[in-house]
Amino acid sequence: MVLLLAAGLGLGGLVASPAEAARRETPRHKIHRLRAQAARVQRTIDRMNDRIEGLVEDYDANQEALAKTRVEQARTERRQAEAQQRLAGAQQQLGQRLRAVYIQGPTTALGQLLGATSIQEALTTAKYQQNVVGNDRAVIDRVEQVKRQLAALAEQLTAQRARQERLQQRLRRQKLQIQSHLAAQRAFLRRVNKAVKRAVLEERRRQEELRRRALARRLAAERAARRRAAAMAARHGHSWQGGTAGSPTAAAGRAVAFALAQRGKPYVWGASGPRAYDCSGLTMRAYRRAGVYLPRTSRAQWYAGPHVAMVSLAPGDLVFFAHNTGSPATIHHVGMYIGAGLMVEAPYTGASVRVSSIGRRDYIGAVRPTG
Prior knowledge:
The chain is α+β, with helices and mostly antiparallel strands. Helix content is 64%, strand content 8%. The chain is built from 9 helices and 6 strands; from the N terminus they run αααααααααββββββ. It has helices at 2-8, 18-22, 27-104, 109-114, 119-190, 194-235, 250-261, 279-289, 298-301; strands at residues 307-308, 318-322, 331-339, 342-345, 354-357, 363-367. Helix 7 (250-261) crosses helix 8. Mean pLDDT is 80; it is low at 1-16 and 108-116.
C-alpha cells in the first residue's frame, strides 16, 4: 500500500533514466526539478515516519502494560505462596487436634461435669470445654478461609496469564507490522536516485532553517504581545500572571544535560537506552536519571505535568507533536525543549538523537514535568 502511494506521488520521475540524464537543462531548471522531486520524496518519507511512530507508540504502550502485568503476577504468586504456608500451618494444627481426639477420645461436657467435686470445678470445666470447642471451630474456619483465598488467587493468576498472552500476541503482530512498514520505506528509498537523495538532504536543511527563523519571529511577536498586555494591566492597577505553569525544577536542567549527551546515538524503535532510543524512551530515561519518573509513551507523558504555552517554554519542558493537533490521543512524537525554539529528540529510524526546531505544523503543545 505504501509503495502504491509512493508511485502515485510520482516515483517514476525520481528514478534516473538515460534519456533524462542526457536531456539538456540549465542549472536553474535542474535545481528547481530536484527540489520539486525532493519535496515529494520528503512528504512521502514524513508520512511513513508518522505512521511508524504511531505504531511504535502502541507497541511501547503494550510493552508497558505487559511489564505491569508481570509485576502483578509476581505479587499474586507471592500472596499465593504465603496463603499456602498459612493453610499448611492451619491444617497441621487441625491434624494435631484430630490425633489427640483419636488417642484420648472426645471429651464430653457430661463426663467432665460428673467428675467435678465442686461447683467451682464444674464451672471451670464447662468453660474449658467451651474454649476447646471454640478453638477447634476457629481452626476449621481458618482452613476454609485460606482455601477460599487460594481459589480466588488461582483465578486471578489465570486471568493475569491470559492477559499476558493476549499482550504478547498483540506485540508480535505490532512488531511484524512495524518491520513491514520499515521494509516498505527502505524499498522506497532504494528507488530514489542519488541526486534526489542529496536534494532531499539539502531541502531538509533548508526547511529546518526556515522553521527556526519562522519560530523565532513568532515567539518574538508573542513575547511583545505579552509585554504589552502586562503593561496595560499595570496601568489599570491589575496584576497579570500570563498563565505560567510554575518555575522549572532542578531536575529539568539535569534531564536536559543527559538528553544532550545522547546526541549521535541511533533511533531504534522500542529502545530506552543506553545505546539507542526512541522518542519517549529518551525523555523518560533523561528524567529518570534526574529523579523524576515519567510514563513510557509520549501519549502518557502528555499528562505528566501542567501544560505550558509555547511563549513560556523553558529548558526541560516536553514538547509534543500529533497527527491531529486538536486531539492528544493522536500524539506520535515527543522531544525535550532546550531553549531558543530548539529541542533534543530521537526522531525516526535511520536518524540519530539530534537538536532540531520545534516549529512544526504538527506541534500540539508542551508539558512541564513535575516530580
